[in-house]
Write a structure and sequence with these properties.
This protein is α/β, with parallel strands linked by helices. It is 49% helix and 15% strand. Strands 2-3-1-4-8 form a five-stranded parallel β-sheet, sandwiched between helices. Strands 6-5-7 form a three-stranded antiparallel β-sheet, with no helix packed on it. The protein is globular. The structure holds zinc ion.
Length: 219
């Protein structure tokens, strides 16, 4: 059975690569964000607890997330088709928990896939969005994938395009710093266990990057 973990900085295309690998192999995508939302929507006791924690602005504790992941990994579809985890583990403690969960299910991790990219590529992607300053219009452009016809001007209404603070270089650098701090221990963890597979995403089509990923996975 195939079980993957996907890691990677914002802007590297981890989500797209994960989706494509699910499609190719039939493994089931498991996102902790979705698990939390599903649990809250179910109205269960655990869901209510999660909701009050998130509403208070706190992080959902390790043991709750681990319990939810464990429960999901035991369900029949995943036992038949395998899993691709995104957003879990976040810490080496969770990584240890996951190892135990897999062992309890008589399976193991196939690979921890790090979808990486050069910093200038990440920064370019994370800061490429431009929005129309005319609120009544609100058109969205992307300097890489959906350029306006005239630089700095909206195609639809001709107003000036602006960058939201979420898309600024400062915010992007912050996100990358947080990512580095949080993820470096996990990368070391999986490198030591021999499960780490590194794939560098480049400025080519998603299909070409996916081919690179398959080669890295010896598929
Ligand atoms: Zn406009």
């Amino acid at each position: 059975m195939l079980n993957y973990i996907f890691l990677g900085p914002p802007g590297a295309g981890k989500g797209t690569m994960g989706e494509m690998l699910c499609e190719r192999t039939g493994v089931i995508h498991l996102s902790t964000g979705q698990l939390l939302r599903d649990e809250m929507a179910s109205g269960s006791e655990l869901g209510q607890k999660v909701k009050s924690i998130i509403t208070s602005g706190a992080l959902v504790p390790d043991d709750i997330v681990t319990a939810m992941v464990s429960k999901r990994l035991l369900q029949n579809d995943i036992r038949q088709h395998g899993s691709l985890l995104d957003g879990y583990p976040r810490t080496t403690i969770q990584a240890d928990s996951l190892k135990r969960i897999f062992a309890d299910n008589a399976t193991e991790l196939t690979a921890a896939v790090l979808v990486d990219a050069d910093r200038d590529i990440l920064l370019g992607r994370l800061t490429a969005r431009r929005i129309c300053s005319n609120k009544a219009c609100g058109a969205i452009f992307n300097l890489q994938s959906n350029k306006p016809a005239r630089e700095g001007l909206c195609d639809r209404c001709g107003s000036a395009l602006v960058q939201r603070s979420d898309d600024s270089e400062e915010t992007a650098l912050d996100r990358l710093r947080v990512y580095d701090q949080q993820t470096a221990p996990l990368i070391d963890y999986y490198r030591k266990t021999g499960k780490l597979v590194v794939m560098k995403s480049r400025e080519v089509t998603a299909e070409q990057n996916f081919a690179t990923l398959l080669a890295a996975l010896n598929m």
